[in-house]
């Protein structure tokens, strides 16, 4: 999934004939993982508390080209990468031509996993419901958010063949793809089992899957609800009926 994180979170900067590839994240563990996988790059703690993984050497930047060229999904990402590629092409005559093809999301690779690592998540919603035996209903949700990428979110929806793309509050153009169903999320579970997310988000996924099997195997009893709440750090549903992991 490392290359997919680079493609999703990477930023390509050009200053004259100088190029710089950077990934900024609050948690440095993913950046160290990327550096170990690639075998080069530097990790620096910025003044704002974020960590930057950077590649500034032109020869090392050239080694990144096969990862990005023709393998990007988001339109805005392709546009950012183009100037970077063109700057490198001025220094290396053997560089492959810029490939503007847009790669489509697939459940057969790790792109969606990297995308979810950055802009998605797994949540459990506990709602009050008078008709339910215990007065509560537990529902599972998977979601990814993105701005001005409705076409891509719809493509993800088509992959899972379920869920919906909805508008979100906040900046104009912000939308969310979500699966909000205790039965339909099995496809999500199968995908992320094959292409796992990492670190805290992986722990969240494991909790989420455990809750799925609690719900699937039997009706919601007090014992089962207690197990779910334990997975949710023992937060009371009466105090917080919408719990996220």
TrEMBL record:
UniProt cross-references to SUPFAM superfamilies, sorted A to Z: Homing endonucleases (SSF55608)
MF terms (GO), sorted A to Z: endonuclease activity
Residues of the Homing endonuclease LAGLIDADG domain: 112-212
GO CC entries: mitochondrion
Protein name, UniProt field: Orf245
Keywords: Mitochondrion
KW Mitochondrion (keyword) present: yes
Name of the coding gene: orf245
Coiled coil segments of this chain: none
Keyword Mitochondrion: yes
Organism: Amoebidium parasiticum
Pfam families: LAGLIDADG_1 (PF00961)
């Amino acid at each position: 999934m490392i290359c997919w994180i680079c493609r999703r979170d990477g930023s390509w900067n050009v200053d004259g004939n100088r190029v710089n590839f950077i990934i900024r994240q609050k948690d440095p563990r993913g950046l160290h993982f990327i550096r170990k996988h690639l075998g080069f790059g530097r990790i620096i703690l910025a003044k704002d508390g974020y960590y930057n993984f950077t590649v500034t050497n032109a020869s090392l930047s050239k080694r990144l080209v096969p990862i990005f060229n023709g393998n990007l999904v988001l339109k805005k990402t392709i546009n950012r990468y183009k100037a970077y590629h063109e700057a490198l092409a001025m220094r290396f005559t053997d560089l492959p031509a810029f490939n503007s093809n847009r790669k489509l999301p697939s459940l057969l690779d790790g792109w969606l996993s990297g995308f979810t690592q950055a802009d998605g998540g797994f949540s459990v919603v506990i709602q009050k419901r008078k008709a339910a035996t215990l007065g509560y209903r537990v529902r599972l949700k998977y979601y990814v958010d993105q701005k001005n990428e409705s076409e891509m979110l719809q493509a993800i929806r088509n992959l899972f063949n379920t869920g919906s793309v909805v508008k979100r509050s906040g900046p104009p153009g912000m939308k969310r793809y979500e699966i909000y169903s205790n039965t339909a999320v099995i496809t999500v579970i199968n995908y992320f089992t094959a292409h796992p997310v990492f670190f805290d988000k992986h722990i969240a996924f494991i909790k989420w899957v455990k809750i799925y099997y609690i719900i699937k195997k039997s009706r919601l009893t007090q014992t089962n609800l207690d197990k779910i709440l334990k997975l949710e750090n023992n937060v009371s549903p009466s105090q917080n009926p919408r719990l996220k992991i």
